[in-house]
Design brief:
Order of helices and strands: HHHEHEH
Shape: globular
Largest sheet: 2 strands, parallel
Distance between the termini: 13 Å
Structural class: mainly alpha
Number of helices: 5
Number of strands: 2
């Protein structure tokens, strides 16, 4: 999102739980399109407030899993925040060989990129 739209909007990444380390396959396939994830750390919805983000200041939550959709709906029930669920392939655990796994991660990356441009329009230059 930040690569496509830069400072056009305020964007934060959060999940249902905080794994802290980003998956190496995700780092690899995002680097292929110029997105640096190696220094990125995931955080949970619950940690957002601790990091200085007030959930009520957001307009939209994009949920990429049923669990994150449920959690987002629970957290936003008292706020005027839209929650959209995008059913995206979860590549974790798919395939045994490295190249097979990378292919699954690329499919997921490309699905997300396609959904972003469909929802928000072409990349800002």
């Amino acid at each position: 999102m930040k690569k496509l739209y830069g400072t056009e909007c305020y964007i934060q990444s959060a999940g249902v739980k905080s794994d802290l380390e980003i998956d190496g396959f995700a780092i690899t396939v995002c680097a292929e399109i110029g997105v640096e994830l190696s220094r990125h750390r995931s955080r949970s919805f619950d940690e957002m407030e601790d990091w200085g983000d007030d959930l009520s200041s957001f307009d939209l939550v994009l949920a990429l899993s049923p669990a994150s959709q449920r959690r987002a709906l629970d957290l936003t029930q008292f706020y005027h925040i839209d929650v959209e669920y995008w059913p995206i392939l979860d590549p974790t655990g798919l395939g045994d060989a490295r190249e097979t796994r990378l292919t699954a991660y690329r499919q997921t990356r490309d699905q997300i990129m396609q959904r972003l441009t469909e929802r928000f329009g072409p990349a800002q230059t």
